[in-house]
């Protein structure tokens, strides 16, 4: 997974344990903003080969009352190892959008966890 944090780009090697930490961090971020829904509002796909596909999605996140929170873009590379395509790479720009939302909502760095997974920075 690659993440543009707004200040830097971080790359994470995703072992099962590292991937679990990433998912746990994402869930904590979403709980902090009363996340309720995610809607893909745009999708572009490019076939790289019969076994590789690149997908670009634009996401709209909404709270539990279906009010918009923020939008971001994510790129996915999917590979077919068997009969099923699996996501093998993800890149996104969600962290700056999340931070911008927190700033508008008047929430502090402690609540957001600074958007930096696994660093303990606040």
Brief characterization of the structure:
This protein has 122 residues and is of the alpha+beta class. It contains three helices and six strands; from the N terminus they run E-E-H-E-E-E-E-H-H.
Radius of gyration: 15 Å
**How many E-type strands?**
6
Order of helices and strands: EEHEEEEHH
Report how far apart the termini are.
21 Å
The description of the largest β-sheet is: 6 strands, mixed
Q: How many separate domains?
A: 1
Strand composition percent: 35-45%
CATH architectural group: Roll
Write a structural description.
The chain has a 6-stranded mixed sheet. Strand 1 (about 1-5) and strand 2 (about 10) form a beta hairpin. The longest helix has 17 residues, at about 15-30. The protein contains 3 helices and 6 strands, in the order E-E-H-E-E-E-E-H-H. The chain has helices spanning about 15-30, 95-105, 110; strands spanning about 1-5, 10, 35-50, 50-65, 70-80, 85-90. The protein starts with a strand and ends in a 10-residue tail after the last helix. The protein is globular. The protein has about 120 residues and is of the alpha+beta class. It has one domain: Nuclear Transport Factor 2, Chain: A (Roll). The relative contact order is 0.20.
